[in-house]
TrEMBL record:
InterPro entries registered for this protein in UniProt: NO_sig/Golgi_transp_ligand-bd, TRAPP-I_su5, TRAPP_component
Subcellular location field: Endoplasmic reticulum; Golgi apparatus, cis-Golgi network
Function recorded in the entry: Plays a key role in the late stages of endoplasmic reticulum to Golgi traffic.
Annotated keywords: Endoplasmic reticulum, ER-Golgi transport, Golgi apparatus, Transport
Quaternary state and interactors: Part of the multisubunit TRAPP (transport protein particle) complex.
GO terms of biological process kind: endoplasmic reticulum to Golgi vesicle-mediated transport
Entry similarity comment: Belongs to the TRAPP small subunits family. BET3 subfamily.
Entries under PANTHER family matching the protein: 41-2 PROTEIN ANTIGEN-RELATED, TRAFFICKING PROTEIN PARTICLE COMPLEX SUBUNIT 5
Name of the protein described by the UniProt record: Trafficking protein particle complex subunit
Organism: Ophiocordyceps camponoti-floridani
Gene Ontology cellular-component terms listed: endoplasmic reticulum; TRAPPI protein complex; TRAPPII protein complex; TRAPPIII protein complex
Principal localisation: endoplasmic reticulum
Length: 212
């Protein structure tokens, strides 16, 4: 009828809600359990993320710190997602440092990169009983990044270190996680060690639980 505005004309800008009233938040978290992102898409996202961070920093340490911050909230949410998708009988949060690190080495790496991390080690130094190392011989986030010679010390796996740190904090195992390049010749030129340094209160709690 004349004079009656159409739906398109009266629609207000903003969030569009489907006619059935359901949004992405109504979907089951298990719906995308077996869905995989193509490596090309993943590489593009990582490249854009690094480029975005690089334009807003002045040095390598600042860039790695920013990448770490970008990965942190993903780790906090990822822990809950992985536990939610576990069967009810095995839906248990890690209660020890070792169980947490095994969850990261296996579950987190498998979810993010389609494989487990290569090794998990504990520091042999008696002065650093709070340090553990997750080793990835070929981090996927570094495979598509071309680092200039003047930035050869940059390791973009600092983003993954942020994810790991978020998982640790989300599980109430406060830690500081950093990524370090430990190249092994031509075989593993991008080998990276993720150094997990737990807070003293976490180590003390672990020792107390071990005694009881």
């Amino acid at each position: 009828m004349a004079g009656i505005p159409s739906v398109k004309e009266t629609a207000t800008p903003g969030l569009r809600v489907p006619s059935n009233g359901k949004t992405i938040y109504h979907r089951s978290l298990n719906r995308s359990r077996t869905t995989e992102l193509s490596q090309a898409s993943f590489a593009y996202l990582v490249l854009e993320m690094v480029t975005y961070a690089q334009r807003r920093v002045k040095g390598i340490q600042e860039l790695e710190a920013r990448l770490n911050v970008q990965g942190y909230p993903i780790g906090v949410k990822l822990l809950d997602l992985l536990l939610y998708r576990e069967p009810a009988r095995t839906q248990l949060r890690p209660l020890s440092i070792i169980s947490l690190l095994h969850l990261i080495k296996q579950g987190v790496w498998q979810h993010l990169f389609g494989r487990q991390a290569d090794r998990l080690e504990k520091s042999n130094n008696p002065d650093t009983p709070d340090e553990y190392m997750i080793i990835d011989n070929e981090p996927l986030v570094n495979q598509y990044i071309s680092v200039p010679r003047e930035m050869s010390q940059l390791n973009c796996a600092a983003f993954v270190a942020g994810v790991v740190e978020g998982v640790c904090d989300g599980a109430d195992f406060g830690a500081r996680v950093t990524a370090h390049t430990v190249a092994e010749g031509d075989m593993w030129p991008g080998k990276t060690v993720f150094l997990v340094k737990f807070r003293q209160e976490v180590v003390d709690r672990e020792a107390f639980l071990g005694k009881t």
